[in-house]
Amino acid sequence: MSPKKLTKNLRQKILIHTTAEVSPRARIGFGTKIWHQAQIRGKAILGKNCVISKGVYIDQGVVIGDDVRIQNYSCLYEGVYVQSGVFIGTGVSFATDLNPRSLTISGKTKKRGDWTGNPIIIKNGASIGSGSVILGKVNIGQFAMVGAGSVVTADVCDHGLVRGNPARLVGFVCRCGYKAQLDKITGLNVRMVCSICKSKFTILRIYWDKIEPNDFLVKR
Fold it and tell me: Does Transferase show up as a keyword for this record (predicted)?
């Protein structure tokens, strides 16, 4: 891509494509790249070394940590909090208003102050597959993974793998992103081992008990 098509702040090491719209009231961390036709509203906070891909919309007040990658055309509305190291796939929507209407009860067009947003928290290292919808009041745990096209209506535990509409827990994933297998059950805790990198992590027994036998290739 020609350097002439980019606006590059060398002092701050922030790259913003000329077609992107970034509010002067937004805070952008060093090393972050904002690509074609992305829109960053006022009072949004983006951490360091993020990648904001083509057509992404980030509403005012959204907070994003460091090293976050957001793929094309995803929409993050006020009330969304994204911690560090998170991956958000293409076309992901965050529906913070659970009772949306175009008009107020008096029949007037709603303004910003008329909307009721509910917080959504995406914790460190989590991944959200393309085309997913995340509803308000949902927390997605550390290193959790949401399968593509899922509709998430409830919290997802750390390392949880969910998919479907509504999304349900079908397994657990390592921080490397691959599915883990049962290693050992001890009281209220369950130790898992990654099928690829062999790293181990612990989950609570209450989450293990939610898994249906057909979802796992190993005996419980």
Answer: yes
Q: Tell me if 108 is assigned to some domain.
A: no
Q: What is the CATH number of the domain that holds 161?
A: 2.160.10.10
Distance CA 181, CA 216 (A): 8
How does pLDDT run across 46-97, given as a tens digit for each residue?
999 999 999 999 999 999 999 999 999 999 999 999 999 999 999 999 999 9
* Residue range 171-186, pLDDT digits in tens: 999 999 999 999 999 9
Domains identified in the chain, total number: 1
User: 121, exposed or middle or buried, with CB in 10 Å at 0-12, 13-18, 19+?
Assistant: middle
pLDDT tier, 12 (very low <50, low <70, confident <90, very high otherwise): low
Does some domain include residue 40? yes
Distance CA 159, CA 140 (A): 9
Look up the domain containing 142 and give its range: 3-98+117-175
The pTM is what?
A: 0.90
Contact 76, 69 (CB under 8 A): no
Query: Contact 178/196 with Cβ under 8 angstroms?
Result: yes
Whether 208 maps to a domain, the answer reads no
Please report whether residue 196 resides in a domain: no
Residue where the block lists tokens 């074609």: 36
